[in-house]
Amino acid sequence: MSTLPASPTPPRRTAADGATSRRRGVELTQAIYRATLEELAATSFEELSFEKIAPKAGTGKSVLYRRWSTTAELVLAALKDDEAGLGRPLMPDTGTLRGDLLVLLTRFARILEEPRGRALRPLLTQRPRHPELFEQVMTQVIAPHRAVLLERMRVAVERGQAGPERATERTAAIGPRLVVAESIDHGTVSDAEVQAIVDEVLLPLLNR
Amino acid sequence: MSTLPASPTPPRRTAADGATSRRRGVELTQAIYRATLEELAATSFEELSFEKIAPKAGTGKSVLYRRWSTTAELVLAALKDDEAGLGRPLMPDTGTLRGDLLVLLTRFARILEEPRGRALRPLLTQRPRHPELFEQVMTQVIAPHRAVLLERMRVAVERGQAGPERATERTAAIGPRLVVAESIDHGTVSDAEVQAIVDEVLLPLLNR
DNA sequence: AAAATAGAGGACGGAATTGTTTCTTAGTCT
DNA sequence: AGACTAAGAAACAATTCCGTCCTCTATTTT
């Protein structure tokens, strides 16, 4: 009854022909990161355990204990990873504020559909329970991405595409917040919804 | 170490002089509702159990099992309760759209600071894990409040205080969403923040 | 006043998890 | 080829948690 469907990641790795293989180094670490974020996305940080992650990554618990001593450490490492996690943000430059906003928010919306994006949810909404982890995720993972959005708004101000003094952290937060809210309510965020947020909410707000 | 600070609700009821009293009926039920929502607000629905609620309400587990058979039942009852939960929404009528929005959103912001408001968070953000409960909370608890906001917007349209065809469920969702987001990020939502949401985001959006 | 009801609290057995350890062997290095 | 490192899997003990039952007694009902 409580048995979950088999994890997306094959529980056991097999080589091309079916002979059993054994992953090492980066390959193994990536599999563990993915399993961690999947599990976190599906449950919560409280329920996260090496016990559940190991089989989902197709490995043994000892492999995890050898590399990280707590689930918080593992989660942070997974989120910071460029491949499995969120890594470094890309700076768009479409020439217009509208274009930059669409690129950034659409990209954000897509990531929220993946496990690595959903993994953020339990962390952010359960903030008071893990202040240290929350703080680290905030400064090491979220902040760089926020900075990019604010930066594009500042550039827009310089280009005269947005009213002066409108490029603040507060206004920069509105877009991502609405996208997250839509994601939570509908499970997905359509391109049309992103457009509506940009055209009907953000641009009117930022143009003076 | 894992012992939580004593619950706000006294674990044991004592009469005026210190003689031990024993609650019954409504009084007892209310205490259980409050304990339930407090516990839910502090943790998550997954971690909720009669075992934890009973001592927090200053009663025994058998009392709970006698009245509800599952935690989902109990949670829904608590949220629907007029006193302990959210109950029926109040319809404001200040004469202006701005006034109505300020009243509704400010009231919402205050409720989100209380346990009964925070109790909603784990339910809404963990939606896929309890579809039935989520559905019931949505239709029986949230929907009536949403309806009030939309209704005030419709009235504003009739009065010419808002552009036609602007009073949609989508636009009605923006205010509450931004309030929730601010609440999650900052733990509290100041009156100034509510004002900013109304004046800088909602009114520009709704006035045509 | 006596009987009946239901609250408070704890005991109990069982099921489910968890972190750690141990063991065998695949894959790597010299 | 032989030695070595680390992966994968399982055994282990300890803990936690759950639902039921039992006892005692405060409060209500007759």
From TrEMBL, chains A, B:
InterPro entries (alphabetical): Homeodomain-like_sf (IPR009057), HTH-type_TetR-like_transc_reg (IPR050109), HTH_TetR (IPR001647), Tet_transcr_reg_TetR-rel_C_sf (IPR036271), TetR_C (IPR011075)
Is DNA-binding a UniProt keyword of this protein?
A: yes
- Name the SUPFAM superfamilies for this protein: Homeodomain-like (SSF46689), Tetracyclin repressor-like, C-terminal domain (SSF48498)
Record has Transcription regulation as a keyword: yes
The HTH tetR-type domain extends over 26-86
**Which PROSITE patterns has this protein been placed in?**
HTH_TETR_2 (PS50977)
Q: What is this protein called?
A: TetR/AcrR family transcriptional regulator
What organism does this protein naturally occur in? Answer: Actinospica durhamensis
